[in-house]
Design a protein that fits this description.
This protein is an all-alpha fold and 280 residues long. 76% of the residues lie in helices and 0% in strands.
Length: 280
């Protein structure tokens, strides 16, 4: 039992090391197997990132304007993750915007230089996040914003893992940093773990943070399916479009596609939150 717990702690720390800039123990065991297994904790890393972003928002919001709190919260996530997912989004915009064949798209995607399409993609993405969070802040409390940020980061990272489960990896895995993640799909217990990482904050958001708490108003339980659909529909729809687009043009996914999926689904989740809060 202790051995199993220790192994899972190592996997979680490996996920933190892969997805963020948060320091981990230098003597942490590292192997392709550890990286492959760490995918089950991607959503849990999202919880950690979202929690830090939410705390920064709450502290800054207590002393300064909401706009500044949102900007510093966004900057915090960029620092924590090293703009890991934003880099994938920018590479995807450059590749799919400038390439007209599978080989050309993959070649551009491997280029570390940032092009016009990538800059535009980042500007649009960051602007959408800021605007959506600003609108949400006017409809929710500061504490509710923390729940929203935590859930958004956890859910969007789970969505990236689902792409790994659905599509085939198409880049030359022998030269890719994502090679271990592309070797095989997650097992059932690993899928359950990554799903729980998104389900736990999502449940808290639905039962505690939505207007007219479902706990204090039992008759509102019948509205749970409606609220859940309204909350997740935009992100799931954007994920569907992204997967269809990736499969059409390159026949699968790359590591950059996973980063783009996380960013797109995070934006979609904020849209869903705004729809939910505005409709009730």
């Amino acid at each position: 039992m202790i051995k199993v717990i220790k192994h899972n702690i190592h996997l979680f720390l490996t996920a933190i090391m892969f997805l963020t800039r948060i320091p981990v123990p230098k003597n942490l065991p590292h192997s392709d197997a550890h990286l492959q297994g760490s995918a089950r904790y991607f959503s849990w890393v999202g919880i950690a990132v979202g929690a830090v972003a939410g705390i920064v928002f709450l502290i800054v919001h207590s002393f300064f304007s909401t706009a500044l709190a949102i900007i510093l919260s966004m900057v915090t996530t960029l620092i924590i993750t090293g703009a890991f997912h934003e880099d994938g989004l920018a590479d995807c915009f450059d590749a799919f915007g400038g390439g007209w064949s599978k080989d050309k798209i993959l070649t551009i995607m491997k280029d570390s230089r940032l092009g016009t399409y990538g800059v535009i993609g980042l500007l649009v993405s960051l602007s959408l996040k800021y605007t959506l969070l600003l609108d949400l802040s006017s409809a929710t409390s500061a504490v509710e914003m923390i729940f929203i940020l935590i859930t958004a980061h956890a859910f969007s990272r789970m969505m990236a893992v689902t792409v790994m489960q659905q599509l085939n990896y198409v880049q030359d895995i022998d030269i890719s940093k994502s090679k271990p993640l592309a070797n095989q799909r997650l097992k059932l217990n690993e899928v359950i773990t990554v799903t729980l990482g998104a389900a736990v904050p999502l449940t808290a958001l639905l039962f505690y943070c939505t207007p007219q708490s479902l706990i204090s108003n039992p008759s509102a339980v019948v509205k749970i399916p409606y609220r859940l659909c309204l909350l997740l529909a935009p992100a799931l729809f954007l994920r569907y479009l992204a997967v269809r687009f990736f499969n059409k043009w390159i026949g699968g996914y790359t590591g950059d596609c996973l980063g783009a999926t996380q960013q797109i689904c995070e934006i979609g989740f904020y849209i869903g939150c705004l729809l939910l809060w505005k409709s009730i």
